[in-house]
Amino acid sequence: MKNHESIKATAPLKVLVTGGGGFLGRAIVKLLVERSNDVRSFSRNLYPELTSMGVEQIQGDICDKTGIEQALMGVDLVFHTAAKPGIWGNYSDYYRTNVTGTQNVIAGCKKHNISRLIYTSSPSVVFNGTDMEGVNESVPYPAKYHAHYPRTKAIAEQYVIKAGGEGLMTIILRPHLIWGPRDKHFVPRIIARAKRLIKVGNGKNLVDTIYIDNAADVHILAADRLEKNHKLSGNIYFISQGDPVSLWDMINDILKAAGLAPVRRSMPRRMAWLIGVVLEFVCRNFKISGEPQMTRFLADELATAHWFDISAARKDLGYAPQISIKEGLSRLESWLQNK
Q1: For the segment 32-50, what is each residue's pLDDT rounded down to a tens digit?
Q2: Domain extent listing, the chain
């Protein structure tokens, strides 16, 4: 990619990637290895693919403060991508990973005098259930959340911002709907629910996504720009393709790439929201395992527009998406057909 050629490190760094075996983490690791950095991954599991790249792997729990502190020894730069994703589960589990885990990373960085931390967040931290069209980073956190993931990621963001004013240089990135080959969440969920998917709302809502290579690329750019310009510390950036498309066209394009039929059925947003209320109540009170087919958060997410102004990332980080949606879909189709 063009950006990668312009950001090669002048000297190898010791870099830690939390969640290095995950979708985004692995893509970041790959770029770091290509730049001849000395890369270490901290994850729950061990990944043969990372071993084949020459990556040092430390297996552990992000909530183990001692374990993460040991993993941070001798490190120059940290990419903190590890998180508990999803829209359903126990609040304590989300808080433990997303908040306590981030606090542990920050404490470890301070203990070992690590200069830079790039934190992966999500635009969902500011989602208030209404259309968000071209909003920038000044939009506030909502008064109430309908899912534990955005709530705990918002809390973690505030710890990272605070750390950015206390000697540790930080940047927060909010990638929106990362997708592409090796995706473990967005694309698999769509494919798994293909026959049950129902278009929520009028189907005209626009969203912006980000292809995996672009998401990884901007993380590297953020680290490089932060090293050169310390005034960026504490900043937050929305990152995406910068190309809003119809959510349901995007979902149908992903289904097409998987050789599946498009979504044809639809229902009003209000009906989906009320179904979500009922299913959440039933699952929560009758201790039913698994995620409800519909939740309030999901109904709002499927029926509203959510795309963001990425001009700050373009200006401060030099970010420009290198892989288009069309090219990304072609790569995704090839991967789905050959995996």
Answers
A1: 999 989 999 999 999 999 9
A2: 2-179+209-243+307-323
pLDDT (0 to 100) of residue 11: 61
Fold of 2-179+209-243+307-323: Rossmann fold (3.40.50)
Measured distance CA(30)–CA(22) in Å, rounded: 12
Q: Is 128 strand, coil or helix?
A: coil
Cα separation, 104 vs 102, in Å, equals: 5
- Which positions are annotated as active-site residues? 149
78 has which bridge partners? 16, 117
Question: How many alpha carbons lie under 13 Å from residue 167 in its C-beta half-sphere?
Answer: 8
pLDDT tens-digit series, residues 253-285: 999 999 999 999 999 999 999 999 999 999 888
Rounded to whole angstroms, how far apart are CA atoms 27 and 57? 15
Please check whether residue 162 is in contact with residue 148, taking contact to mean a CB–CB distance below 8 angstroms.
no
Query: What does the mean pLDDT of the chain come to?
Result: 93
287: tokens are 């201790």
52, 58 contact by CB (below 8 A) = no
Q: How many residues does the chain have?
A: 339
